[in-house]
Amino acid sequence: MILPIRAYGDPVLRKKAQDISPEYPELKELIASMFETMNGAHGIGLAAPQIGLDIRLFIVDVSPLADDEDYVDIAEELKSFKKTFINAKILEESGNEWKFNEGCLSIPDVREDVSRKETILIEYYDENFVKHTETFSDIRARVIQHEYDHIEGILFTDKLSPLKKKIIKGKLNKITAGDVAINYKMRFPK
């Protein structure tokens, strides 16, 4: 089931999300709906706060990037990189910071360069509540960091310079007001 994505300005996007247990109601169905919602909006990641739930759950599917010429060297790895992260905790960020132009389904039509570390060590549970501790690098680490920020109540726009924030303020106000053209279901703050 495709769910409406919460728009910039919704208070749930600023909440630090709570851990869940394996008994969380209809978890498998929720994860399936999140993938359907993300794919319908042509995204590569989606966090539970973006659909109105303040729980520590996010999904990532970077397979659409496998055809991008920037990722020729890792195309095979990207094709099968579809994961669910429950109760995730980033244990370490390392390597050089690199800038990349990020966007967000909750902040349509706004894209800006964001600096992030190139490698992360993360502990999480998968959709079957099997615990993993893994290291990710490259675009996979970046997408995970972006979605992880959502469960911490952080948006990519928070990482911008004061000048950049001032420049995009008008666009953000329009999103909050619902004055944006999108091709997916979205719920705007009241």
From TrEMBL:
Coiled coil: none annotated. Gene3D superfamilies: Peptide deformylase (3.90.45.10). Fe cation binds at residues 104, 146, 150. The keyword Metal-binding applies. Binds 1 Fe(2+) ion. Keywords: Hydrolase, Iron, Metal-binding, Protein biosynthesis. It comes from the Bacteria. The keyword Hydrolase applies. SUPFAM superfamilies: Peptide deformylase. Its EC number is 3.5.1.88. Its cofactor is Fe(2+). It catalyses: N-terminal N-formyl-L-methionyl-[peptide] + H2O = N-terminal L-methionyl-[peptide] + formate. It is an enzyme of class 3 (hydrolase). The active site is at residue 147. Removes the formyl group from the N-terminal Met of newly synthesized proteins. Requires at least a dipeptide for an efficient rate of reaction. N-terminal L-methionine is a prerequisite for activity but the enzyme has broad specificity at other positions. Belongs to the polypeptide deformylase family. NCBIfam families: pept_deformyl (TIGR00079), PRK00150.1-3 (NF001159). This is Peptide deformylase. It comes from Cloacibacterium rupense.
